[in-house]
Amino acid sequence: MTKGIRNWQAVQQEVLRRINAREWPPGALIPNEADLATEFGCARATVNRALRAVAEAGLLDRKRRAGTRVALQPVARATLSIAVIRQEVEDKGARYDHRLLERKLARPPATVSRALKTGAAALLHVRALHFADDVPYALEDRWINPAGAAGALDQPFDTTSANEWLLEHAPYTGGDIALSAHSTTAAEAQELGCAEGAALFALTRNTWNGDTAVTRVRLLFAHGYAMQADL
Amino acid sequence: MTKGIRNWQAVQQEVLRRINAREWPPGALIPNEADLATEFGCARATVNRALRAVAEAGLLDRKRRAGTRVALQPVARATLSIAVIRQEVEDKGARYDHRLLERKLARPPATVSRALKTGAAALLHVRALHFADDVPYALEDRWINPAGAAGALDQPFDTTSANEWLLEHAPYTGGDIALSAHSTTAAEAQELGCAEGAALFALTRNTWNGDTAVTRVRLLFAHGYAMQADL
DNA sequence: ATGCGTATTATGTCTGCACATATTATTCTG
DNA sequence: CAGAATAATATGTGCAGACATAATACGCAT
User: Fold this and answer.
1) What crossing angle do the helices spanning B8-20 and B44-56 adopt, rounded to 10°?
2) Which end of chain A has fewer CB within 10 Å, C or N?
3) Distance in Å, residue B53 CA to nucleotide D6 C1'
4) Using the beta-carbon criterion (under 8 Å), do A76 and B74 form an inter-chain contact?
5) Residue B193 three-state SS
6) Whether the Cβ atoms of residue A217 and residue A149 lie closer than 8 Å to each other
7) How confident is the model at residue A74 (pLDDT cuts 50, 70, 90)?
8) CB–CB of A228 and B173 under 8 A?
9) CB contacts < 8 Å between A and B, how many?
10) Cα A145 to the chain's mean position, in Å?
11) Contact A174 B74 (CB under 8 A)
């Protein structure tokens, strides 16, 4: 009988240890909450809290009545935090700056209107360049749905970047992100100051507020950029 | 006085609604748990559960004594699930296959030994190609630390890929991931069957079991690959 | 005014209990 | 024997109360 495991973090740690040490091998059914509670000498709610946390981390599969078993394939969930670009730059100790390249109301290409489900409606197209210590850091190509971001049409986006303004003024409920590699075009090469054909890291994000699209943005990062995440 | 909000999910939804509707604007201090509990007509523990969930999602900042406030910059946390390659391929409805290209004990380049902190020790170097419907899907370049993955030296990795074997037999406690864009070299182009210089999506991952390195792997995905995540 | 100790307060967590709910096992019935 | 009704069981959640802990506010002494 293990003792002194009375808070949920300690329980979690012990559970993780047993999984790691293969005391509870992958696929195995582990004791139920009540039994673990008596073993650890704590309340069932405490065990529940711990097991829930481990399950959220993907190392346990829980089902009512069926019990809790160790995940066969612990899906490595990396939580990459996509911050505001200004912050990302400043966190690296560099001076942030940005320049508006273009801002106009226009009919988006089919890719965009299809992704945002905005039909033939005109959207606000904003292009901007972000700098870190005066070196191009990322090229932003954004389409804003005026119907999903009230007040956007009145914003110049010259001093405050669209990136930051939207975060502050346009709430969203969900979205999706795609990460990919992109081969630099001639125009992009000139704006970002890199060689044509260079491999660049691209991030495309759509955000929604309920059923209405808010914005779609593609960020093209300067050469050498790597996105970090922890397991 | 709102009523009928008695379970934590309903509380969470109401909290999200208020944040979204700017009833609680960014940066604002929201009522404390006890007050919300009386307002909603539920126990404080229920409110706590809900607020904790919202805080974990990054929309609230909580501090003892200081209270709970709406996050100024809701850090968009995208949880990308990095599954086993076989599964990723099969989930797309394609037939998975893989081929071992190389397997030998060798001294790793400085980049690797530095990242894994293995000094001058020899590591197991495994290179393999993953296919989806017989088309190259990803090129795997892996260094395995025998000290961190017991039994790895006895594995041929021809029928079972190192990817899968390690997941099953080498537990890990943490790691880090870097995502980047890579310009294809001539050798890689030949193996992946794409043009030299093409922009490819690369994933480099180090995993650890406590303080000892387990493995470092770089996956180079075929042209056109995009990694998806949700917000 | 300045610095330090103390009181206050909001969140964090544990407990013991109860009931809800999903899922599996079992039994009953035609 | 098939299929439906029913029981059993593990997790999910709610509640009230208690104490722990961190961070702030306040007041006191210097």
Assistant:
1) 50
2) N
3) 37
4) no
5) coil
6) no
7) confident
8) no
9) 150
10) 21
11) no
Find the helix or strand (DSSP H, E) in which B176 lies: strand B174-183
CA angle B46, B48, B53 (to 5 degrees): 100
B21 CA to chain A: closest CA distance, Å?
8
Distance from CA of B87 to the nearest CA of A (A): 10
Closest chain A residue to B73 measured between Cα atoms?
Answer: A167
- pLDDT tens digits for B113-156? 999 999 989 999 999 999 999 999 999 999 999 999 999 999 99
Choose the closest CB to B229 out of A177, A181, A182.
Answer: A177
Query: Do residue A77 and residue B79 have CB atoms under 8 angstroms apart?
Result: yes
Q: Which two tokens stand for residue B54?
A: 């919202």
Q: Which residue is nearest to nucleotide D13 (CA to C1')?
A: B7
> What CA–CA distance (Å, rounded) separates A167 from A162?
8
| Tokens describing residue A44 | 């069932």
DSSP chain A: ---S--SHHHHHHHHHHHHHTTSS-TTPBPPPHHHHHHHHTS-HHHHHHHHHHHHHTTSEEEETTTEEEE-SS--EEEEEEE--HHHHHHHTT--EEEEEEEEEEEPPPHHHHHHHT-TT--EEEEEEEEEETTEEEEEEEEEE-TTTSTTGGG---SSS-HHHHHHHH---SEEEEEEEEEEPPHHHHHHHTS-TT-EEEEEEEEEEETTEEEEEEEEEEPTT-EEEEE-
Q: Which of residues 61-100 of B touch strand C (CB under 7 A)?
A: 62-68
Q: Which amino acid is at A75?
A: V
Q: What residues form DSSP beta bridges with A78?
A: B80
Tens of pLDDT, residues A161-204: 999 999 888 989 889 999 999 999 999 999 999 999 999 999 99
Give CA separation, B211 vs B27, B147, B172, B174, in Å. 39, 11, 10, 10
Which of A64, A5, A2, A54 lies closest to A32, judged by CA?
A64
